[in-house]
Structures
1.
Amino acid sequence: MNRSRKLIAGLGVAATGYVLAAGIVAFAVPADAPLRGDPASDANTDIHGHAHVDADQAEQLTGPFGAHGDRHPQAPRFETAAEGQTERRRRSMSALSGHFRAVSATLLSDAGGEEMLQTHADALAALGRDIDLLFAEVSAAPEGEKGALPAIWQAPERFAQYTAAFSAESARFAQTVRDGGDMVNGLHDLRYYCVACHADFRQR
Ligand code: HEC
């Protein structure tokens, strides 16, 4: 490898690290929780529901592309395990949704992206395999508020049927993609398990 290629490779690694670090910071912020004990306690919430602070209070991050202020600072910590779990559960659900919709956009348009279908399907299967871990702590939403219903922890055996069924179906879908099978119907079948669990265990 010549020097300039090494430099470019090194820059690539550094840039990836920087983007990852910035990503972790950005994603660590709860969508609607106040930023406790933070200089940015006057955080605003934009139309997407993300907390953000004014530019002069942004945390400065440095890296190969210069210094940049992060206006979505990290939450100092979550007060309780249930709060942390609720945040992690919602973010993981959003990740499931992102992979699901990326697949459907590929299948339902002629914009390409077939080379990434397996990546998204495998991510759905990996997240699906461990979906029960998102409910390990009792962390129901307060009564009448959006979120997880107490029935999850009151009827654990019934709920386990829903998580197990989703694990199995998401694994089946990944295999369908691997086999070049009927992905449109496979995705449709998988969606049933999202919808059924939401209908029975989620307050909207
Ligand atoms: C075994 C049950 C179950 C399955 C399966 C399931 N979900 Fe969820 N989902 C929930 C529960 C419960 C909540 C509410 C979590 C909370 O607010 O604490 C939720 C919340 C969500 C949210 C809102 C996240 C947020 O930021 O508030 C999205 C989006 C979502 N699910 C998408 C999906 C998609 C897409 C699938 C299928 C690919 C899926 N879910 C499968 C139980 C499930």
Note: Confidence is low (pLDDT under 50) at residues 1-49.
2.
Amino acid sequence: MFVDYTFSTTLTLEQMYSVHVGQGLSCEWISFRGSKMSLPRALLEQLWSLFLLLWYCLEAVILACIPRSMRKRKSVVGEIVLVTGAGSGIGRLLAQGFGQLGATIVLWDVNQAGNEETADQIRENGGKAYEYTVDVSNSEKVYEAALKVKQDVGDVTILVNNAGIVTGKSFLDCPDHMIKKTMDVNINAHFWTLKAFLPSMIAKDKGHIVNIASLAGLFGMNKLVDYTTSKFAAVGLHDALHYELVFSGKAGVKTTVVCPFFIDTGMFSGVKIKDPLLTLPLLKPSYVVRNVIDSVLLEEQMCVLPRHIFLGVLLKYWLPEKATLHIFRRLGFDECMSSFVGRGKRD
Ligand SMILES: NC(=O)c1ccc[n+]([C@@H]2O[C@H](COP(=O)([O-])OP(=O)(O)OC[C@H]3O[C@@H](n4cnc5c(N)ncnc54)[C@H](O)[C@@H]3O)[C@@H](O)[C@H]2O)c1
């Protein structure tokens, strides 16, 4: 079959890419949305685009070489930070940490006693704290409480979606109501809090959304099917929201998603790690919170903990399935949930 590619610097791009096939057929195989661009101009744009791509990669490599301690951090003095699930674990420590940095803290939790305890601790250390008993899985309660926060404290400028629950059973043993609850607390609640607090951030083109997901938002885990699903959704929400904000000209509203391995808070009480030397030890809550706050102050997009595990995320999509399964077994992921107790039985 005879194909004639017509190249001429005087032709428009659409003409240039017209493929004239023998037997009188002609097909336009690339559309340039009707733009009339000369060949030198198009080549120049391609080169510029390639240069920008390389420049952004180089910039990232240079940034990665600068020690984190030397990088510029933003201040949160006077910011209004709302933490969901502030009555225990990571939420409590994050609330205390941001309080120590001079932010006003709004604490939400369904556990009234735990939430009040966190608020008292912040106030004892000279910080400002306002606690509210809220079930974040209930959209109406979230909107009601958000209105109260606006009246009592002001516009929330940093939102930390942290509240979370886990069932910890094989998929077919998960009762329907627990699957629904897991999705309601771990992901649907993010929609309600975002709807309540994002508009004022967008109006000012300033703010920060922090979603506490999990490493289970990047890797599937057995006996954590419902939890993993909710955490993958939290990572997806973060990703899509980030692009929506940037592409609508609201890049001043920052987003950070946090994906930690198991943390020693009690939520995953009983989880057995095969060999802490060979595999990953449970993370210390203080290490996690220090790194999360650091990522927020540095306005990082993603905080995977421990940091080196990010390599595993890249490998997962490159390695063959059998190799991935082998690594998962070697790390003890196949059995780690078999001794899970969680908060349900312990507390
Ligand atoms: N602990 C881990 O190993 C681990 C690992 C990765 C990610 N995470 C995530 O980190 C976050 C914090 O976990 P944690 O270890 O501190 O757990 P935690 O159980 O100590 O704290 C969770 C808090 O959320 C609150 N909460 C639960 N349901 C709620 C609701 N409907 N409304 C309001 N508050 C509610 C609880 O009362 C509790 O205070 C969770 O999102 C969890 O999924 C935990």
Note: The beta strands are 3-5, 18-21, 26-28, 80-84, 104-109, 128-133, 158-161, 207-212, 253-260, 302-305.
